[in-house]
Amino acid sequence: MASYLPLLVASVAAIGFVGVALGLGFLLAPQQFSRLKRTIYECGMESTGGGWRQVHIRYYLMAILFVIFAVEGIFLFPWAAVLGEIGTFAFVEMLVFMSILFFGLIYAWRKGAFEWR
Amino acid sequence: MNGSDFAFLLPEIVLVATAITVWAVDFFTPRDRKPDLAWPAAAGALVAMAFLAISWGEHREMFLGTLRLDNFSLFFRFLFLTVAFFVIVGSPGYVRRKLRNAGEFYGLILMSTVGAMGIVSSREFLTAYISLELVAFGFYVLVSHARHEARSNEAGAKYLILGAFSSGLLLFGISLIFGATGSTGYAAIAAALETTPDFGMVWTLGVALVLAGLGFKVAAFPFHSWAPDVYEGAPLPITAFLSVGSKAAGFAFLIRLFAEGLFPVLDDWRVAIGVVAVLTMTFGNLVAIQQANLKRLLAYSSIAQAGYILVGVATLNADTTSGMLLHIAGYTATNLGAFLVVIYFHNLTGKEGIDDLRGLYRRSFLLTLVLAVSLLSLAGMPLFAGFMTKFYLFTAAAASQLWWLIALAVANSILSVYYYLLVLRQAFITPESEEEEQRPAFRLPSHARATLSLLMVLVLWIGIYPSVFVDAAEAGSRALFGG
């Protein structure tokens, strides 16, 4: 159990830091709200509706594609860490893996997955 | 792990490459030519079959023991490639009438086949599970591929939800077994069972959940309820693929798991599996009698057939394993034959009711002949594959002395003759109305005639002179049981 102690310390420190930072900001900052200020901010786009409204099913396709490449990224890290030891073979294997995913991207693109119809 | 292991995966690599090529070519193919992508896809399956020859007689542990190539996996990999070939070759006419995105359709069939080939080679739970999911993911899309038909969508949703649920059961079972034995490898589990014969409740629950999860996949009673609806709603070639490919993959999983991992505790489970087997075949047969739709009839009949194969699992040993392999091979050829008839009949008439078969004898001799051969074989009539393989399987199972099981299996087999003959009565005897007599004879495309004849010859070959197939099945069983 002792080996988990640093983890506990780090967690407490992290939660504490965020709490203190947000709390101080809440206490010290001047607070003047207007209706416009309370609207949801999303990348400069004008927001429509609340944060809990139903999401269009087409987002699903985009989300799936996003997840695929996020997972590809996760696979790349351990691969990069041991690449020096495994050598050319692992390099070629990863190229094959990535080219299959790349083909998937092209396929989705050609089939119109990114078009909002 | 080394590079040379990959040489033995060439069939799988060829399939994946073919699938990707088909998808890529699909971009540049005009819409009306897309159904013809079946031919390159089928050619890919044949090339993969040729590469299988490399693993002939090879016994090899690969990738840290997660995969094992032996005659057992060779038998099933060959079987799955055959299934993929016939399903794809049987599809173009149907695809042209009903489906868009033909390239996707053929490619996914190949991908599901790759998954099935992975299941039979894996001797470790997680590898087998991932392969099973690869099969299932392909099927989820394929079942709902007729996007503009409500029934296909319904079938897809049902299959997805129940499939995900059964995968959950299977995974939970695997985690409990891992918790009890400390390994997911079949060999290590067997070794753990030798030293600790009783792991208590956790173990029992784990095995029960794994059995339930796989029971879903092979549509065994009481986990069969998805099968008839999904079989009815799915595009016809996919129904054929589900009823042979997916089922055979589930059984391959079960057989290798019990032979290599759970064999030490098999005695605790014999009766339970036997009861499931009897319930499965009885239920399948009794409900099949009432069906008016040919697809649903074949769905229930395939549930019943799963019951017969489960008899072999309940009495598992070297002999019943070769019996099961032989029966699965015979059932595959037979059921593919029956479904190809339904597909071609549907292409020509748009119908699939048993009543619609009236006058088939007059309209197409070949369709009637193949239908008769297939159904008589499913019913277990001598001269056809069904009799020979069931005889072989039940005789081997009789050595276990579970007499009630064998007696009920044989009784069920006799019961099933009734509804298969009902179908044939429509095709041969029931007279057409005067209006119906005016309908012209069918004209089948030449590739349809070739595949139908080929399957019929296979069924008769297995039924009359099965020594080649018996040798192959016994070689497969020896790979698991030695000797």
Task: Report on this structure.
The complex is a heterodimer of chains A (117) and B (483). With 117 residues, chain A is mainly alpha-helical. Chain A folds into 2 domains: 1-31; 54-117, Up-down Bundle (Methane Monooxygenase Hydroxylase, Chain G, domain 1). Chain A has 3 helices and no strands. Chain A has helices at 5-28, 58-86, 88-110. In chain A, helix 2 runs antiparallel to helix 3 (88-110). The longest helix of chain A has 29 residues, at 58-86. The N and C termini of chain A lie far apart (55 Å). By secondary structure, chain B is an all-alpha fold. Chain B has a domain at 267-483. Chain B is 76% helix and 1% strand. Chain B has a two-stranded antiparallel ribbon. The longest helix of chain B has 32 residues, at 150-181. Chain B starts with 9 loop residues before the first helix and ends with a helix. The model of chain B has no long low-confidence stretch (mean pLDDT 91). Classes of the chains: A mainly alpha (117), B mainly alpha (483).
Give short descriptive properties of this protein.
heterodimer, A: 117 residues, mainly alpha, Methane Monooxygenase Hydroxylase, Chain G, domain 1, 2 domains, flat, B: 483 residues, two-stranded antiparallel ribbon, globular
